[in-house]
Amino acid sequence: MGSRTGRNGVDLWAEIVASEQQQEQPPNGQVIYRRRKPPAKTTPQDVPPSGRTSIAVGACLDHQPQVKQAKRKGRPPIPKGKVVEPPSFEKERAYFDEVDAFELMEESPSPKNYGTWVSANQNDTMEIPHLSSRLQKWLNCRRLNYSCGPASTLSKILGNSAMTLTPIGGDDFNPCLTPEKLSLKVNFPLHCVESTLKSSMVSGNILERDISESHELEDMASEDCEEIEFSVKKLSLASTSSLESHQSNFATLLAVCGQSVPSSFQDVFSKYCDLEKITKVGEGTFGEAFMVGNYVCKIVPIDGDFRVNGEVQKRSGELLEEVVLSRTLNCLRGRGGDGLNLCTAFIDTIDLRVCQGSYDPALIRAWQDWDEKHRSENDHPKEFPDKQCYVVFVLAHGGKDLESFVLLNFNEARTLLLQVTAALAVAEAAYEFEHRDLHWGNVLLSRSDSVTVEFNLEGKKMFVKTFGLLVSIIDFTLSRINTGDDILFLDLSSDPYLFKGPVGDKQSETYRKMKEVTEDCWEESFPRTNVLWLLYLVDILLLKKSFTWFLSTRLVYKAIKATSFLRSPCVTPLFSVGGRGGVWECNSKNKRDMRSLKKRLDEYQSAREAVLDPFFSDLFVDSIVCLSRAWVLGATRPGRLRNNPTGTTPARAGGDVTCCRSGQAGPAADGTCARKGVAGGARTPRALSF
Ligand SMILES: Nc1ncnc2c1ncn2[C@@H]1O[C@H](COP(=O)(O)OP(=O)(O)OP(=O)(O)O)[C@@H](O)[C@H]1O
């Protein structure tokens, strides 16, 4: 094999290694937060229990098969010794039964049935999901005189009356429907689910009572908020126990997933591939991600009373929000939305399922294979008991996360930023969406033949140059959205440790800045939080991605030049892929551009403003583009493009190959579509630079 030593007798590979080691040190002593650095495995005894406080319903922990230190991917560590116990529903039941009995006796118009809201069927103890908290939201909106469109009236918040009046066992909730049939209702809105649950779970007279109380409350809208709040508190809805609330959340979660009972892993996964072919592809604080056929299935354990990966398990209610949020974002793909705001940059949620049981042996085998190669930080899944429940997100494969992805050039960095910005802008416009946790583990990247990718912002089409890179945004756990019927958000004020990460660390600083912007009121819309994550991403590209690439690439090139083996005709083409895109030397101009972008981002209040920034201008394409990279490079890709270079093939959903005659490009400040200084145009295939 070729010599390791260069012409000057210098050991170039040693130089590369040394240089990269140097690069691992944060520049100027700045603390850089690493998402997941596999530590030496710890034993349970080493690690004090710790946990997430965010929206866990505090109670006691009885059963803990194993205790691991909480690993908050990309989030500040929890101080040792801090214990947040997961709920024990049994203990709460006794307490709340007592309280409910007292309060209902005092306040219920039907004191004979004080043990429950339901008069007709004593076995049905299901309360109406979320109602009191939704009333509270409405009150907050009134107080702030906050008109967030659809959620601003009480009748909206309670679900529309037509739905509420649906006869019991009405069309929307037919227990005879198979889960498959139900799951066809892709955009099943939450209020419909609630209404169907109401319909199916409570008796008619209670329903009537709810309706009349809603109307009473609406009449009171002009009264002093304090009085209304008092009235709301008087509703014994507010006294439902967390056990009941948990049951109703779980039932709602099942309904949203189109199920009447949980499935087994085998049932779900065998739809996509032979179970033996499953491999693990990643892991997060809460979930494990497996490649199942062409999809990635993220499995999140829920509702158990022991910790998983050092964290209190998420509750059905929390997952319900994430599930509805994921489903809502799917509408941006043109399935059921208004069509004015479209994009494919949020990961495609193919299916959502609730599963129950211990981990399938095929998953355990895949988990162990991954563990051998990557040393998992998560608990071994063989520990899960038979009764354990999970939510399974069946997702499109989004590629590699930004943390581990190697960017080839500055254009790739630019398109990454623009695709993220445009996606956020579209989702802001459609749903007042804020991601609120867009660290580099949640930006996935994949290489593709696409030349452009399409975004529709408020009815205006934008075609963004991809330079062969497509972005997918994942993980909506902390996100906030207004679905039109509900405002879904996580109250981060109950997670103080999120804001206690190291000073100077970009990610921790971003959480703190979000807190400043929102003043710790997480329900309201603050699109500025999206801009804060854009600023974070620019910093990451400047500090973590470009320098490493620049130095290592330079040295690799030195090695190529200097080493006879690497200069041999059969090896150099391997490097020409990077060479074609240009080595990202993050030269002083690139750096200056990024820094001025940062300055301007400081002034923007939303991604919608940021997408107009001149930094992105020449990334918009505004003319006929009908080609793929493979086509330009002369590859023999069958049929579709080679036979049809004239621009008549329809654009493919997902932005694979764009073929359009648009004359429209980036949005102008006045909301109209104007040409944004497209460099060199893109009228002929070869005019495109990449
Ligand atoms: N659709 C996907 N395509 C490819 N990889 C994925 C996908 N979804 C998740 N992954 C992989 O699994 C990892 C964990 O996923 P995710 O961040 O959604 O889990 P999480 O438990 O919510 O994480 P967090 O610790 O941020 O809360 C990701 O970092 C990624 O490597």
Automatic annotation (TrEMBL):
Cited Gene3D superfamilies: Phosphorylase Kinase, domain 1 (3.30.200.20), Transferase(Phosphotransferase) domain 1 (1.10.510.10)
SMART domains, sorted? DUF3635
Pfam families to which the protein is assigned, alphabetical = Haspin_kinase
UniProt keyword annotation of Transcription regulation present: no
Show the catalytic activity.
L-threonyl-[protein] + ATP = O-phospho-L-threonyl-[protein] + ADP + H(+); L-seryl-[protein] + ATP = O-phospho-L-seryl-[protein] + ADP + H(+)
Q: Where is the composition biased (Polar residues)?
A: 19-28
Main location (coarse class): nucleus
Q: List the subcellular locations.
A: Chromosome; Cytoplasm
GO biological process entries:
intracellular signal transduction; mitotic cell cycle
Disordered: annotated span:
18-85
Which cellular components does GO assign to this protein?
chromosome; cytoplasm; nucleus
Assigned keywords, A-Z: ATP-binding, Chromosome, Cytoplasm, Kinase, Nucleotide-binding, Serine/threonine-protein kinase, Transferase
Q: Which PROSITE patterns match?
A: PROTEIN_KINASE_DOM (PS50011)
Q: Which residues form the Protein kinase domain?
A: 275-616
The EC designation for this entry is: 2.7.11.1
Q: Name one GO molecular function term.
A: histone H3T3 kinase activity
Query: InterPro entries under this entry?
Result: GSG2_C (IPR024604), Kinase-like_dom_sf (IPR011009), Prot_kinase_dom (IPR000719)
Q: What is this protein called?
A: non-specific serine/threonine protein kinase
Origin organism of this chain?
Ficus carica (Common fig)
